[in-house]
Every structure is written in C-alpha cells, then in structure tokens.
Amino acid sequence: METFAFAPPYELPHWPFVPPPELAAGTEGRHPVVIVGAGLSGLTLACDLASRGIRAVLLDEDDTVGVRGASSRGICYAQKSLEIFARLGIYERIAAKGATWSFGRTFSGETEVYSFNLRTDSVSVQPPFINLQQFYVEWFLVDRIAELGLTDMRWKNRVLQVEPQADGVVLAVETPAGTYRLHAGHLIDATGAHSPIRTQLALPAHASRSTDRWCISDVRFRKPLPVERWTWVDAPFNEGRGVWQHLMGDGVWRMDYQMPDDADPAEVSLPEVAAARLRAQLGPDVDFEFVWIGPYGYRDHLLKRFRYGRIFFIGDAAHVVSPFGARGGNTGIQDAANLAWKLALVLRGEAPAALLDSYDAERRPAAAHNLEVTSRSARFLAPRSAAEHTLRRAVVALAARHAFARGLVNTGRMSVANDYPPSAWLPAGSRTVQNVPLTDGLGAPASLTDLLRPGTHWLGLWRAPSAAQADAALGAVAGLPLRLLAVGPTTECGMDVGLPAYAAGDAELAHLGLQQPGSLLLVRPDAYRAALLPQADAANLRRAFDAALAPRLADATCP
C-alpha cells in the first residue's frame, strides 16, 4: 500500500485558564461589554474596542484559535478587512505571512475563459486580497489584544445561559473551577453558525442547507505553482466539476474539489483518494506532501434582526453564506468594525444610545446582499436542472469569445466592502473610503488609516478651504470627535489655512470626491463616507456631522 507524506502538524498556541474574579468573590461582576466567542469576528471586535480605549470581557470555551487539526478554513482576506487590520496594528504580520494576490484565471475544461486583475480599480495602500490560514489571523489578533491590555480574555469559559434584562444581560458561565454569573451592559454574540445564545433565545435563523459537497486538500508542492487564483468551472480532471487553487501562508496550497452530491465524506478524504485527485490535475509525477484533508458542505442563514435589546449578533451568529467569493469571514470582520466605534462613542457618552441601532440598519442589508450574491454563485457552480446546465454551458462558451459575457461566469463574486442603503444616519447611503496613500506637509508618507488612529473620531477632508473658512469650522466643531484636515494636490499643500495639510494624487482625490476646491468629505471612524459637501462651510459641516451621529428619530431604539 502506498504511503503518503504529511507535513508535521501545526503547533497552535494554548492560553491558560485563569479563574475569573467572580469565582473568588462569589459576586456577579458587571462589565460594559461582554463578547462571547473568540473567532474572527469576536477577536476583531475586542481588538477594535481596545484600540479605542474600551474595556471588554471576551469569553471562549476553548483555549486556542482555529480548529483542532489546523485546517485552513477561511483564507481570503479582502481589502476592506486588510484596511481594518492595518488600523488595528496586525496588517504587517498578515502581509508578511500570507500570499498577496490580485490576478485570477477562470477555466472551462482545458480552455482559459478569461482572466482578471482586481488591482485595476484600487487606490488603497492594501492589496485586493491576501490569503492566509484563518488560525494565523486569529493568533495575531490575540497577540495584539494582549499588547493593548484592556481586554479580559477568559479561556475555557462556556456560557450556559443568558437572561436579557432592561439594563443589560446576565450570563451564567461554566469554567473548570466552577460556575459564576456576570452582568453585561452590552452582550455581543460571536459564537458562530451554531450559536447557543441564538438557540436559547429561540430566534429563527431561516437556515437552508445545500446538497453541494466539496473536499479540501491543503498541500505543499516541491515545484511551486503560479501565485494566482485559478478556478475551473468544469474541470476535466475532476469529472466535470469545480476546482479552486489558492496559495496560502507557509507555501501551502489550498485545493478545493467539488464532489458528487452523494459523496461519502470519509471516502473522499482518504489520502489515496485525495492524492489521485492531485495527480489527475497536475500529473502522475507531482511531488507533494499533505498538510490537511477534509470534506465540507455549507448552509446559509440570516437573522431577522442583528440587535435584540442589549444583545448584538455578529459574524456567523448573525448570518452564514456559501463560501463562494470569500464573503463569510470578511463580513464578520466588517460587522465588528461597524459596531466597535459606535459602542465606544456611546459608552463614553459622546453619542446617543440610538446610534447602536444603525448597526442593524447597515449590516443586515449588507448580509442580505451577500446571501443573494453567494446563492447565485452556488446555483451556477452546482446546477440543479438540465436547463441550468444548458444555460451555464452557453454562458461559458460566450465568455470565451465576448467580454460582455464574462461577468456572467459566476464562480464567486469576490468580497468587496458593502455599500449601505439610505437610513436616518445616512440619508444618501454610504460606501467605503479606501485607505488612500497621502503625504504630510513634511513629505512623509501617510494614509487615511493613519489619520483615523488612535482613538475614535471622524475626519473632515477639505479641499482648499480659506483660512477664514477653516477657522470658522474649527469653532463650530470644537469639542466634537472630528479632525479637520486640508487635502489636495501637492501644489496646495503649501497654503497655510490653519489645518494640517496632506497631499494626494489625482486618482486618490477622485476616489475621495475632492476634485473641486471647497469640497469636503466627512469620513466616519470605520472609514465609511458620512457626507460629501460640494462647497463646505461651518454651518453645513456641523449639520452633516450632527445628522450622521444623532439624527432625530422618534422610533430609533430597537426593542
């Protein structure tokens, strides 16, 4: 019998259980924020809050990151998530460890249908994507949280029960040393797709499960493959089914093979079966070693609301989508970034409590859109009828010859930062502001993310204001969490208008909407556009800020 080489298993970090103070005191501890679940979204929220000076308790029933066996799980981190990680201080580690890519190829059979470059429309400092095993990102977040020193990370703490109350939530928590209770002013459920909190509260998730089946092989090859995303719609070496090929950290390749609907998960995960798939794709002499092999299916669900009183749902606890386009983990990361700054301002008394309602108003439509997009991808990759198969063949044939049809080849619309619909806080809706590169008055490099940290504040990026306008505006927003800056081409940076000055290129100014002198872009703490004022002055700037932070709503507060 043939034997197969397996790489040495990853040695994941383990953190010690520390008895919480409530156990020794025998009292119910009170905390402004309690986060349950130390996965991507929960760790991102804890880190984001700590970066804004907000203390939190983070509970997790395990003592490590990822899953035992160190499978790759989520691997594609999109530009918006990378910009968030830059603000939190872990982007450099991710970039150094991961595989940066922007170029992809799509094949049908043995024919390349088309290729794409995601960098084309980007002005961000961060690339469109970096691939890295999920446990590394979680590990880096834990390290950063420890550095910031404001989060009480409690490992081996399992939530048994939650009791919603008018002023918060009481939790019963089980540990190796006994059970205790604590009171959370705000409880954030980041426990994932099988949330016990959501189940206990009997909140319907409207779940559906696909019959589509896949098997992952995490592999190292002696001869490297191109650092590109290659996708086969109907690979001849996989019985006409889909295949993905991605490079991750440590020189490990993630190979996803679509399986028959009735495939036996144990059978398709056998090393000899996985090896046969690799050899069918890359030739009988391919030299490789396995890192991990595992099957997966997928489901989707979407909560009706993401806020219920003092309980907020983020990440997979709120929504689950199929894996096509990397919209799962990225959406959870961006949920956390949306909620963190709002909690920070409300807890410091710098914003009304109703601001927290905007989390649901913005992130649920984002999740609903992602569910719609990924569901269409799933139907394209796994047609359920002869008509759907015929339509896919026609689309692929057209795409090979005509550019207009390439957008119809749906192997997964890659994750992008969601636009937000109009709401009380955003009357015109909103979209993300990329982390554009800038140059300060001394010629030193900077970026939008640099200007958003530390702390929690808006940015007012103003193109060529007069000194009198700047002075009046500074008076109008004095004491508010808002930094006013002059931003324009290099030729304008020498103008002393009483504001810190930054230079930007033409493409960056166009992205910011600052092509015309006098225009001002108001940027929220999460790098989303709050308002774009064609001709700013002190009065309309103050109105725009007040509207984004505290609109007058009669029915703002969720039940």
Task: Please tell me the overall pLDDT.
Answer: 90
Structural class: alpha+beta
Please tally the helical runs, counting DSSP H or I stretches of 4 or more residues.
15
Radius of gyration over C-alpha positions, nearest whole angstrom:
25 Å
Number of strands: 28
End-to-end distance: 63 Å
**How much helix, percentage-wise, in residues?**
25-40%
Beta-strand level of the residues, as a percent range?
Answer: 25-35%
Low-confidence stretches: 553-559
* Global geometry: globular
Main sheet record:
8 strands, mixed
Describe the structure.
With 559 residues, this protein is α+β, with helices and mostly antiparallel strands. It contains 15 helices and 28 strands. The strands form five sheets. Strands 1, 2, 8, 9, 10, 11, 19 and 20 form an eight-stranded mixed sheet that branches. Strands 6-5-14-15-16-13-17 form a seven-stranded mixed sheet. A seven-stranded mixed sheet has the order 23-22-26-25-24-27-28, sandwiched between helices. The longest helix is centred in the middle third of the chain and has 25 residues, at 357-381. It is globular. The protein starts with 20 loop residues before the first helix and ends in a 10-residue tail after the last helix. Residues 553-559 have low confidence and may be disordered.
